[in-house]
Amino acid sequence: MDVFFLENVKFRYETDLVLDIERMTVSTGEVTLLTGANGSGKTTLLRMMAGLLTPETGIINYKDEAIIFGKPGLKHRRQVTLLVQEPYLFRGNVLLNVSYGPRARGMNISQANKKAEEAILKTRCEGLIQRDAAQLSGGEKKRVALARALAAGAETLLLDEPISHVDEENSEVIVGIIQELAASGITLVVSTHIPEWTKSLSVKNVRLAYGRVV
Amino acid sequence: MEYLLDGFADGLIRVLRADPEVMRAAWVTVKVGFWATILASLIGLPVGFLLATARFHGRGFAITVLQTSLGLPTVVIGLLVYGFISRRGPLGFADLLFTPSAIIIGLVVLAIPLVAVFSMTSVASVDDRVRETALTLGASNGLVAWTVLREARFGMVAAVLAAFGRVSSEVGIAMMLGGNIEGYTRTLTTAIALESMKGEFGFGIALGVVLLAIIFVTNFLSRYIQRS
């Protein structure tokens, strides 16, 4: 079953056409790899699939329903979570950050913390749990952001350049988590401009160039 | 020079002895400053948040009006509020003139633009990713707004403290609307103006020291919060 269905999707930044997708699908439980050079439209596409950017024209359906973009699209934003390339961690400690998604879904503090702790264990962040988010290194921030995205409990994860600007050690951990997620059957859409690290994964490749699928 | 040194010495002795007249003026200053800051914050903080986050027709004009209001002379505010609350004014029936409430009204008018502009700047400087992160983690509209506010909280608190510092050191409004009644509407600033005109330099110094101490503590708190 297709979870995402895109047709004739166009997006412009001012006058520049940065995305022009004729047709694209993402199936349930599949790992879709978006590749392409910097500026090929990967981030714009992911932000649209997350419901954060509204296309100029075209259809983007999630589970046969048109995505509602922006603030009104709460249902979609609870099904699909985007991990951006340079994630922002809220003021406070790691636990507070990771428990944000569960708390946003109405869980009480102890339930949310339990959910957060599970995600923290999965992303090997247990040593960071009480650390101030502002004091973490770039790689640690990315792992914590991944834990936060996992704890949110979305059925589809969109990962924008998950190992860019990350040291080797953190990169290995993140790749391991992505492999585990892929094996667990979660739907993943992952963008990268260095696809070598995905060789161990069974993926569907979607290559973008100048905003088009090639 | 001897006159100045004597004045400082007299002033310090009065402070150390907790001169009752100085303490009464300090109490009135803190009391009206506190209530004016609370009321101005209740109005100014939401206005600042709205101007920073919402896009609506006339937003630019509203910001310009608020920024202009920052430079409004306090005697002009005093004069306008006086017009409203004096016996012949539209609010004359409330008999507010020369009461602490009158000073509070004037100080609220003075502090609202300050709180609104400072909090607007503070919210506007919150990283754009905060809103998007909250959205993509499934936050409701209310929680998104709360998350942005939470990230800007140090700036918001600093705005409130800056407003308290400003209203505590104000003289024109307190003089015009309060009438400088000893023990009732006499604040530290109006007392300084009165005592120095009477030639009581030492008394003026004592009042000034207490006023500076209040403003110093406020600014210290503000810096502490911003740095943390």
Structure, briefly:
The complex is a heterodimer of chains A (214) and B (228). Chain A has 214 residues and is α/β, with parallel strands linked by helices. Chain A has helices at residues 42-49, 74-79, 94-98, 100-104, 109-122, 138-151, 168-184; strands at 2-13, 16-27, 31-35, 57-62, 65-66, 80-83, 156-160, 187-192, 204-209, 212-213.
Strand content of chain B: under 5%
User: What fold name stands as the CATH topology of chain A?
Assistant: Rossmann fold
In CATH, what is the class of chain B? Mainly Alpha
What proportion of the residues of chain A is helical, as a percent range?
25-40%
CATH homology group of chain B: MetI-like
Low-confidence stretches of chain A: none
Number of domains of chain B: 1
Count of discrete structural domains of chain A: 1
Question: Radius of gyration of chain A, rounded?
Answer: 17 Å
Topology, number of strands of chain A:
10
Number of strands of chain B: 0
Seen as an oligomer or otherwise, the chain set is: heterodimer
The CATH topology label of chain B is MetI-like fold
Report the biggest beta sheet of chain B as strand number plus sense, adding barrel if it closes. none
Description:
The complex is a heterodimer of chains A (214) and B (228). Chain A is α/β, with parallel strands linked by helices and 214 residues long. Chain A has one domain (2-213): 3-Layer(aba) Sandwich (Rossmann fold), CATH 3.40.50.300. Chain A has seven helices and ten strands. Chain A has helices spanning 42-49, 74-79, 94-98, 100-104, 109-122, 138-151, 168-184, and strands at 2-13, 16-27, 31-35, 57-62, 65-66, 80-83, 156-160, 187-192, 204-209, 212-213. In chain A, the strands form two sheets. In chain A, strands 6-7-8-3-9-10 form a six-stranded mixed beta sheet, with helices on both faces. Chain A is globular, with a radius of gyration of 17 Å. Chain A starts with a strand and ends with a strand. With 228 residues, chain B is mainly α. Chain B has a single domain (2-227), classed as MetI-like fold, CATH 1.10.3720. Chain B is built from eleven helices and no strands. Chain B has helices at 2-16, 20-53, 59-69, 74-85, 100-124, 128-136, 141-151, 153-168, 172-178, 188-197, 201-227. The chains are: A alpha/beta (214), B mainly alpha (228). Chain A binds chain B through residues 50-52, 70-71, 74, 77-78, 80-82, 84, 86-88, 90-91, 100-101, 104-105, 148-149, 152, 154, and chain B through 127, 129-130, 132-141, 143-144, 147, 150-151.
